[in-house]
């Protein structure tokens, strides 16, 4: 058996949205991210989020719909986007002031984390929380 150094690195989370340019601008303003790039066609945008990239692409596009099927819209999608903040109260306030729909204000959880929830302009749930410390 051959030894493998071919370990994966998590590279992207792709968020399917109605309007890429609007969503990129919203996330930059509401959550404090720097825009890495927005292509001229406005079919792809990226936020600089450290080791991984948050990318945005249209809800429907021929490159993926024919291969993987169309994106299904439900009341609550099968994912949420989670961001760690040292000050969840300030992050929640900023997000709501910049157009996020409030879902649940910041509260302390029994496991020692402070958590708040909003929805972005496409209805995607965004969790803002302090980092969970492990023992």
Task: Write up this protein.
With 135 residues, the chain is an alpha/beta fold. The chain is built from three helices and eight strands. Strands 1-4-3-2 form a four-stranded mixed beta sheet, covered by helices on one side. The protein has a four-stranded mixed beta sheet with strand order 5-8-7-6, with helices on one face. The longest helix is centred in the N-terminal third of the chain and has 12 residues, at 20-31. It is globular and about 45 Å long. The chain starts with 11 loop residues before the first strand and ends in a 6-residue tail after the last strand.
Task: Produce the secondary structure layout.
Blueprint (H helix, E strand, L loop, with lengths): L11 E6 L2 H12 L2 E5 L6 E4 L4 E6 L3 H7 L12 E4 L3 H10 L3 E8 L5 E6 L5 E5 L6
Parallel strand pairs: 1-4, 5-8
Antiparallel strand pairs: 2-3, 3-4, 6-7, 7-8
Strand order of the largest sheet: 1-4-3-2
Give the percentage of residues in beta strands: 25-35%
What is the end-to-end distance?
36 Å
Q: Segments where pLDDT lies below 50 for 5+ residues?
A: none
Q: Helix-strand pattern, N to C?
A: EHEEEHEHEEE
Q: Helix/strand/pairing class, anyone? A: alpha/beta
Task: Give the radius of gyration.
Answer: 17 Å
Q: Which of globular, elongated, flat, extended, rod-shaped describes the shape?
A: globular
Count the DSSP helices.
3
How many DSSP-defined strands?
Answer: 8
Sheet with most strands: 4 strands, mixed
């Amino acid at each position: 058996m051959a030894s493998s150094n071919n370990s994966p690195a998590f590279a992207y989370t792709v968020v399917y949205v109605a309007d890429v340019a609007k969503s990129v601008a919203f996330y930059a303003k509401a959550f404090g991210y720097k825009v890495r790039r927005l292509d001229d066609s406005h079919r792809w945008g990226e936020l600089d989020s450290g080791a991984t990239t948050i990318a945005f692409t249209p809800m429907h596009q021929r490159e993926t719909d024919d291969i993987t099927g169309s994106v299904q819209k439900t009341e609550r999608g099968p994912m949420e986007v989670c961001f760690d903040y040292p000050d969840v109260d300030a992050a929640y306030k900023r997000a709501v002031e910049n157009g996020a729909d409030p879902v649940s204000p910041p509260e302390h959880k029994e496991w020692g984390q402070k958590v708040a929830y909003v929805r972005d302009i496409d209805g995607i749930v965004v969790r803002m929380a302090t980092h969970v410390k492990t023992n």
